[in-house]
Write a structure and sequence with these properties.
By secondary structure, the chain is of the alpha+beta class. The chain has four domains: 187 residues, Jelly Rolls, CATH 2.60.120; 130 residues, Alpha-Beta Plaits; 50 residues; 300 residues, Peptidase S8/S53 domain (Rossmann fold, 3-Layer(aba) Sandwich), CATH 3.40.50.200. It is 22% helix and 26% strand. It contains 17 helices and 31 strands. The protein has a seven-stranded parallel β-sheet. Strands 3, 24, 26, 28 and 29 form a five-stranded antiparallel β-sheet that branches. A four-stranded antiparallel β-sheet has the order 5-6-4-7. The protein starts with a strand and ends in an 11-residue tail after the last strand.
Length: 740
């Protein structure tokens, strides 16, 4: 029997629809304008007292920054207080999520504490000084007064709010995140901050600086005693010790074995996929050389470090061959790789700027747009935090937001660190929403679980479901065997998430090598997640969506009674797209399982940790076209499919698997009789800095994978193709090797 491959071109079935009519509703407000004015006027005047004491040079263009915390009832982008800010002369320069205990809740059963949005609002000290008089002139029925009543607290940002020094060792190099003022210039801001920093005893290193969104990250050097005055600079968002780079070493050093293996007899399966490894370099002599297309030194003047070179070779081996069975032949590579040495001897000298220097190398490769697949098994030795986005994450997510590159990022080997202090959480930049964050599974066979050393979730919201998935990473009971350096094909035993990430990416490269251009990198990311193995006893914070199958055929082929269908295309902001699920022209019998995975690439607002992704999907499932909630209804009755149901609150949508998450995945069972012309209605929500998006919001790339499994219909795959002429089975673009 012929192999049944993925069914493609389902995007040709989609079509735009009119926006459904919104149900009228009333909003319960926790505070009246009078209540808010009584509480907030003294707070605003107190903040102004703080602002007037600041040094003039600390206030660029006389700007000061205040913290404006909204009541948790106002999380939706439509409640952003733009009118109020505009009339006062303030503008939002960033935000973050904050857990508070509100003065009053709108519901009796509401929790005492809730997550809400803290806005950082900037304005001249003159405008802020006039704020109280503006409030006194407001009337309760004015729109600005209604927006004012949404505010929970208003305080001045102080040095203590900006410093992140808890649990850190005293040092002399720090990274500073700066808010770019509206219409501000990064070079001008850097110069003004450098001048102020000099007065505080600090030097800004002009060689390093990264702009992402409305944030500018710079590196400064000076004595810790001067940090408090430095943190008075009003446009500073965060100041923290420069993190160390995760040493490019696995959990245990690779152990060379007196065991050989056989290199593959053939060349890589395809030379079409463009693949890169960003790591510690390659040795002068190694047997993987025929499969390395090009080798680059990010800094040709720096020397190799043996440990880093060993790590680079091991990661490259994992991507080329996967885990190698001692004494056997290695798997044939799916494609050759380029290796970029981004780690070198300068880190061994404890260069305090190595973190930024390495990020510069990574950024250069990403901006070259040469690669569809990139592996990154390194980053800052820093667990993610919820309050602020790190420079590494911001830079990488911004570049990956076009969805043209699939980057696998290792989550880190800190899984055994103190859980009470969250030191075992995934490490930066594996919180990137546009990357694929990969943790380690402990074995290749059944009864697998999360490897003890692999960092765990949750990720930062949105992106709470992290890691995205697991791949085998090795443990002392079953090591990950890789190529050892030297002229002969010998093995080394190792373990770590550094090898799980390239193994997962190897499957992605394999899909592209076999199916070719018709399958986009973002679609391949969705396919990996869609095909993950998962059981009820696995915790999502440990394993994400599950473990990538070792057999790539499970991702690209369909069994009896099964059809896996892919949609890939673009969504326009504010528009609704209907995606029909193709079924045969007859009613399916018995139980039918539908599994769906939506994946999209999103632009990001790094300065807005509370509203990081600028795109979100509202998805409605309508299983039966002839069933209406009431007579005359324009659309079929909807049914819950994904965990974020239609009628959850904005808070639930954002803190769970809500519409701002870039991956949605679920599986549900139905009777065949309840499915008739089923559809997903997809609405692309756009936001900017937590508020309504401007008219120029971009289109975004999306991928949707749907698997229909009807055990009583063995020929389901063929029946669907026969019923829908535009669909096409994606046949291999190359001759596949015969499996023995």
């Amino acid at each position: 029997m012929n192999t049944r491959y993925l069914i493609g071109r389902a995007e040709l079935l989609t079509y735009p629809i009119e926006a459904p009519k919104k149900k009228p509703g009333s909003k319960a407000h926790p505070y009246t304008f009078s209540d808010a004015r009584q509480v907030l006027l003294p707070a605003i005047e107190s903040a102004n007292t703080v602002f007037q004491t600041l040094p003039a040079k600390a206030c660029v263009d006389d700007l000061a920054v205040a913290s404006l915390v909204l009541h948790p009832a106002y999380l939706a982008k439509s409640f952003f207080p733009k009118l109020l800010l505009d009339q006062v002369g303030l503008s939002s320069v960033g935000s973050r999520t904050r857990r508070i205990k509100p003065r009053h809740q709108t519901k009796r059963n509401a929790p005492a504490e809730a997550d809400t949005t803290e806005l950082f609002v900037a304005g001249t000290r003159t405008a802020l000084k006039q704020f109280p008089d503006f409030v006194r002139r407001l009337q309760a029925d004015m729109p600005a007064a209604e927006q004012f009543a949404r505010i929970e607290t208003f305080t001045a940002m102080t040095a203590a709010d900006r410093l992140r020094l808890e649990g850190t060792e005293p040092g002399h190099v720090y990274e500073v995140g700066l808010h770019l003022p509206p219409a501000g210039d990064a070079n001008e801001l850097r110069a003004l901050f450098a001048d102020y920093a000099k007065d505080c005893g600090f030097t800004v290193n002009g060689e390093f600086g990264f702009e992402a969104g409305s944030l500018l990250f710079v590196a400064v050097e000076g004595d810790r005693s001067g940090l408090e005055p430095l943190a008075q600079f009003t446009l500073a968002r965060v100041i923290r010790p420069m993190p160390q780079l995760r040493a490019a070493r696995p959990v245990t050093r690779s152990m060379p074995l007196a065991v050989s293996f056989t290199l593959p007899s053939g060349e890589p399966l395809s030379r079409e996929p463009k693949v890169a490894v960003l790591d510690g370099g390659l040795p002068d002599t190694h047997v993987t050389a025929p499969y390395v297309r090009r080798y680059f030194l990010a800094d040709p003047d720096a020397n190799d470090v043996p440990d880093f070179v060993e790590h680079g070779l091991s990661v490259t081996s994992a991507l080329l061959f996967g885990p190698i069975e001692p004494g056997d032949a290695a798997e044939r590579p799916y494609a050759p790789v380029d290796h970029h040495r981004v780690l070198d001897a300068r880190i061994e000298g404890e260069d305090p700027y190595e973190l930024y220097r390495t990020l510069g190398h990574v950024e250069t490769v990403l901006l070259s747009r040469q690669y569809q697949f990139i592996n990154l098994s390194l980053g800052p030795d820093m667990p993610v935090e919820d309050q602020d986005v790190h420079a590494w994450t911001a830079v990488i997510d911004s570049i990956l937001s076009d969805g043209e590159t699939l980057m696998a990022v290792a989550v880190g080997n800190n899984g055994e660190r103190d859980a009470a202090l969250s030191l075992n959480r995934i490490q930066v930049p594996s919180d990137s929403v546009n990357a694929l964050s990969v943790g380690a599974a402990d074995r290749t066979g059944q009864e697998w679980k999360h490897a003890y050393y692999s960092a765990i979730g949750p990720g930062r919201s949105p992106g709470r479901r992290k890691p995205d998935l697991l791949a085998f990473g090795g443990t002392p009971k079953e090591y990950f065997h890789v190529v050892a350096s030297g002229k002969q094909p010998t093995l080394a035993a190792t373990q770590g998430t550094s090898f799980a990430a390239p193994l997962a990416l190897r499957s992605a490269v394999g899909i592209r090598a076999i199916l070719g251009d018709p399958v986009h990198p973002l679609t391949i990311k969705a396919l990996l997640i869609h095909g993950c193995e998962m059981t009820d006893d696995h915790h999502a914070h440990h394993v994400g969506w599950g473990r990538v199958p070792a057999d790539i055929n499970r991702l690209i082929t369909c069994g009896d009674g099964e059809a896996r269908i892919i949609y890939q295309g673009e969504l326009r902001p504010g528009k609704f797209l209907r995606a029909p699920i193709p079924l045969p022209p007859f009613q399916l019998e018995g139980k039918v399982t539908l599994k769906a995975t939506f994946c999209y690439a999103s632009p990001v607002d790094p300065q807005d940790a509370a509203a990081y992704t600028k795109a979100g999907l509202g998805i409605t499932f309508r299983p039966h076209s002839e069933k209406r909630s009431k007579a005359g209804a324009a659309n079929a009755k909807s049914d819950s499919f994904f965990p974020a149901a239609e009628f959850r609150t904005e808070d639930e949508l954002r803190t769970d698997l809500g519409k701002w998450e870039t991956v949605l995945h679920a599986e549900n069972k139905y009777y065949g009789s309840s499915l008739h012309e089923p559809v997903f209605d997809v609405h692309y929500n756009a936001r900017e800095a937590g508020g309504l998006a401007s008219a120029g919001a971009p289109s975004i790339r999306y991928a949707l994978i749907v698997t229909v499994h009807a055990p009583k219909h063995a020929q389901l795959h063929q029946d669907i193709l026969a019923a829908h002429a535009v669909l096409q089975a994606l046949e291999p673009q190359i001759s596949l090797p015969v499996r023995t």
